[in-house]
């Protein structure tokens, strides 16, 4: 296919940019009368229009069973798959041979919120959550232990579904 070439002639003599300037200003002014699409954070956070995508991956949450115990069975898959190496797991075992986490910690500061831990968990215990307001004053406060992970109450993130790639 032949390539079309458009040759532009340089303006000769004096050129006025007034028309282009006025056109630009008219465009800017027209935006003053259009409906606003930006929202003020955090003032408008509680309004009904402020929503986070259900697949947003934020602060982790550990789900618990009816007795309030963490659903984690200390299988070791999530620390194994975590690309940021930010999950610390020390497994334990009770008299009946049931495994449980003696220590389970996630460093939210190192986490890249890929969601692999949620995807790989066979017990659907650990989840990334629809939550993001987790700033702290010190770095060690970003290490969430099991108790703190279990105490989270925000909604958990929906996993990516290949049959519904846009999450609709
Ligand atoms: S979301 Fe990704 S980086 Fe964060 S803890 Fe889970 S596997 Fe690791
Ligand atoms: S993958 Fe699930 S069950 Fe296995 S150690 Fe992680 S949280 Fe526990």
What fraction of the residues are assigned to beta strands by DSSP?
A: 15-25%
Main sheet characteristics = 3 strands, antiparallel
What small-molecule ligands were found?
Answer: iron/sulfur cluster
Spans where pLDDT lies below 50 across 5 or more residues: none
How are strands sequenced across the largest beta sheet? 2-3-5
Number of strands: 5
CATH A-level architecture of one domain: 2-Layer Sandwich
Inertia-based shape: elongated
The SSE order reads HEHEEHEEH
Distance between the termini: 40 Å
Q: Helical segment tally?
A: 4
Structural class: alpha+beta
Amount of helix: 10-25%
Q: Would you give the CATH topology of one domain?
A: Alpha-Beta Plaits
**What number is the mean pLDDT?**
91
What's the CATH class label of one domain?
A: Alpha Beta
Kindly provide the radius of gyration, computed on alpha-carbon positions and rounded to a whole number of angstroms. 26 Å
Question: Could you describe the 3D structure shown?
Answer:
This protein has four helices and five strands. With 168 residues, it is of the alpha+beta class. The protein has a domain at 58-151: Alpha-Beta Plaits, CATH 3.30.70.3270. The strands form two sheets. It has a three-stranded antiparallel β-sheet. Strand 2 (87-93) and strand 3 form a beta hairpin. It is elongated and about 95 Å long. It binds iron/sulfur cluster (2 copies). Residues 81-84, 86-87, 106, 111-117, 128 line the site of one iron/sulfur cluster (SF4).
